[in-house]
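Ticket 4471: requesting a sanity check on a complex prediction with fe (ii) ion. Repro inputs:
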Amino acid sequence: MHAIRSRGSIDADRMNILGISAHYHDSAAALVIDGVPVSAVQEERLSRRKNDAAFPLLAIEWCLEHAGLEPEDLDAVVFYERPMLKFDRILTCALRAFPRSWRTFPEAMKSSLGDKVWVRGTISSYLGVPARKILFTRHHQSHAAAAFLAAPTDRAAILTTDGVGEWATLTVGHGTRRTNGGGTTITLPREVRFPHSLGMLYSAFTAYLGFAINEDEYKVMGLAGYGRPTVVDKVRRLIHQTADGAFALDLDYFEFHSTATRSYSSRFIDLFGPPRPAYEPIDLSSADGRRFADCAASVQCVLEDTLVTLARSLHEETGLSDLCLGGGVALNGLANARILTESGFSRVFVPPAPGDAGCALGAALYADRIHFDGPDRHIPDHPFWGPSVDGVELARLASEDGHLVDRCEDEDVLIRQTADDLTAGRVVGWMDGALELGPRALGHRSILASATGTEMRDRLNREVKFRDEFRPFAPVVPIEAADRYFELPAGGARLARFMSAVFRVRPEWRTALGAITHVDGTTRLQALDREMAPRLYALLQAYGRRTGVPVLLNTSFNLSGEPIVNRAVEGYSTFLRCGIDVLVAGQTRVMKKVSGASRE
Ligand SMILES: [Fe+2]
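Returned structure tokens:
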């Protein structure tokens, strides 16, 4: 444990706010200066430990260094939730469930007392900032702020949904920007409280289907595409609508509220059958494999129905045309697409990091606009708040190892060469500028490949990503061309800006775009705006000129179980360990010695 050292500089005129999320999963830090984000990064991207939940010392250090700030320059440090409230929830649940909770209790005490409850002291000792500068937002206020304050809308309804914060698992309300003299407001008048939780319901199925909770929920969504919702009626026994339009879980089917080790009960197993053993491959041709896929499809269906019902009543109640979605459940692209088309809202916004990592940014923005009553500011509409990649570093590393290295000072040449690589069927590691905040590669840390044919999908799963074969890949397409290949509803292109929704591939393109078309004909596309990632946009155009179809497969630049790459050395290491043929970082292009030549 070391404190961040002071380097001694100060700009007294600026308002410097540091946001922190930590101690649950996916820690992060974000710096907001004069109301505008300057830097934000997840701890895992720097520590290289996937879903790193530790106090984000590296992320904080980088954010401050990037802005040339010292800890004493900070006007406020904002933690993304209220530790004592969370502690209260853990304590209450443990006591209520005693003696069943006797195993959970020491665990909860250890983790809460060890980290969360003493957050103020931790922050103070690491950063050397006085306790009076340390503020706390509520967990769902942070989600709401991340969703609303960064979205290009002046007034919007807000719906946040996750596993659990302090007590809240879902909040509804609305936000107003400070325009025409009024102050910025975020009002969340109603909430659903733990243990009633859509996120926990979905996570219980994630565990039941043999995947990792808080990490593999998207695998359940992918598996759902292979199943039919044949057990929807059974899932509905687990959750029912309440008189106020919200929902409640039947707690007899769950154990997440009373044990440390299991999220579903023996009654759940009686209802759905034996769970899938983790790490065993899913054989979709077997009866059990189909049963698991049907379970995934059924819980997905119930989740979507519940969210659409909530969003629809929120629309009727507020009469607003815009909706901002926050919380980890807003990563569910199938649900988001249905909310857009069925709830009555014209526009739906999901930030690039709707989960807890994005709460670091949300907490800082909330403090600026609400606590300090700061003026409204335009927030750039992109996810690129992390460290920049250094192409010179890549050139040095690759030259030392004897790879073929091009330093392309002419941008057009680099784009043309890379488009040629992709056209020839090579897999390209693509690093450009600042790292994305959030779980999705949106054009700066991507693995790119031809989207044509299922061979490329299988090759990527086998040689590059080393992952389950049912996992679909996503495409990226210039926003102007998206309609040609994908069935986008009104407002769909906006939702596809950060890959937040799943839409249908047009039937006539499903075979040609086989590598990115899921078994049910859908895909989670990114509709790329030129301004957001101009180099990738230029690459798509160049590729389109060669092949007639400006659509590329775009998957996050990481191997299974590893965080997305950050620096050139991490991209280079990944490039060496898998079937990527070409690596581009900045102006540097590297061809692999052996496999590059063999794929000519
Ligand atoms: Fe959360």
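Notes from triage: Residues 139, 143, 162, 165, 327-328, 356 surround fe (ii) ion (CB under 6 Å). Leaving this open until the requester confirms.
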